Amino acid sequence: MKGIGEMPPENKKPVEPVTTRSARIVEVIETVSIRGNGVENPVREVIQYWSKDGILLAEQDPCNGVE
Predict the structure, then answer these.
(1) 23, 42 in Cβ contact below 8 A?
(2) Maximum alpha-carbon separation in the chain
(3) What is the pTM of this model?
(4) C-alpha angle with apex 60: 10 to 14, nearest 5 degrees?
(5) Among 3, 21, 32, 50, which residue's beta carbon has the most beta carbons within 10 A?
(6) How big, in percent rounded to 5, are the helix, strand and coil portions of the chain?
(7) How many C-beta atoms lie closer than 10 Å to residue 1's C-beta?
(8) What distance in Å separates the CA atoms of residue 39 and residue 36, rounded to the nearest whole number?
């Protein structure tokens, strides 16, 4: 993760800091799963965040980055 003021790679433009307009705490469901078989792809822990209605909101997979 880059900090404010760090230079991006040559092929990307710097990101301007944005002032947060609002913030709030919301309830989500966090699941932690094991993915991979250790042969074709590594075994790793994957974290997913779901809405109460069962909609996948975000996933953190060390092999794929953050979606």
Answers:
(1) no
(2) 46
(3) 0.62
(4) 20
(5) 50
(6) 0, 35, 65
(7) 4
(8) 8
Return the structure tokens found at 34: 């094991």
Return the structure tokens found at 35: 């993915």
Q: Mind listing the pLDDT tens digit for each residue in 37-54?
A: 999 899 999 999 999 999
pLDDT digits (tens, 9 = 90+) for 1-18: 445 555 656 667 777 778
**Mean pLDDT of the residues in the chain:** 84
Structure tokens at 52: 């109460």
CA 40 → CA 8, 25, 36, 51, distances in Å? 32, 39, 8, 31
